[in-house]
Amino acid sequence: xxxxxxxxxxxVIVLVSIGIFLLYPCSVDADLSWDNNYNFFLFSFGDSxxxxxxxxxxxxxxxxxxxxxxxxxxxFIIVMILSxxxxxKNYRKNQExxxxxxxxxxxxxxxxxxxxxxxxxxxxxxxxxxIVFKKYKEIQxxxxxxxYDTLRKNCTDSLYHMYRSQLEILKLKKQKNIMNHFRQITFxxxxxxxxxxxxxIKISSTIWCYDYIINEExxxxxxxxxxxxxxxxxxxxxxxIQGNHDNKCPSCGFALENQNSVVCSCCDGExxxxxxxxxxxxxxxxxxQK
Length: 290
Known about the structure:
The protein has 290 residues and is α+β, with helices and mostly antiparallel strands. The protein is built from five helices and seven strands; from the N terminus they run H-E-E-H-H-H-H-E-E-E-E-E.
C-alpha cells in the first residue's frame, strides 16, 4: 500500500511539472500578437519569405518569462530524474523481496516434499503440481460432458455425489456448463496431513479458463464465452498409502465392518476405496473470482 502511495505521489509531481511546462506562456509577455500592419495569416514578405527583424509576429519573451521557462524545464528534468531513481530503487527492492520469498518458498517446498516422501518414496512436488492441474481439467471436462465414470475415478465419494446432484439439476434445466482453454497461473502447497493410511495435500491455485452455461439451443444463459474467468481455488487431494490393508478408518482408526465402506460409522470421515492409490480430489473451494 505504501509503495502504491509513493508511486502516486511521483506521478502527481510529474504531471504537475508537465502542466507547468505546458502552461509557461502565461508567464511570457502578454503581447503575443501579429504586427498590426499585417493580416493575421500573413508573414512579413520582403527580401525574405519570413520577414525581417522588425516584422510579423513577435513572441516577445521578457527576461522574467525566460527565467520562468528555463526554471520550469530544469524543475521538470530534476523531477523526472528523481522519479526514475526512486522507481528503479523500489523495483530493485521488490525484486530482492521476491527473490527472498522464492528462496523461502523453495525451502518450504523441500520440507513438504520430504514429509510426503516418508510415506510415498517416489513423490515429486513438481510432478504433483502437474497431476493437480491434469485432474482439475479432467474433472471440469467430465462435468461438462456428464461423464460420471471419470468423476468417480477422480473424486472422493462425497464430492462425486455433490457434483452428480449439480449435474442432474443442469440436465433438468436442459443446460450445459462449458469450460475450456484452461491455464494454471499459480500453484502453492498450503498444508500436508498424513496418517497411517493416507496423505492429504491442500493446495492453492489460480486458474484461467472460459466458463459459461448454454441451453439446448446453444444460447448462453450465464457467463461470457469471449472473456476468460480467473478463479482462485483451494483444493485438497488425497492419496491412499500403498501397503495398508487393515480396513480401518484413516481418520480415527476405527475398525470398519464393511470392506467397501465409504463413510466411517464412528467419526463420519470419508473412506477412499482400498484399491485406489492415485490422487483424488476431496474438496474444492472457490476463494475468489474475477
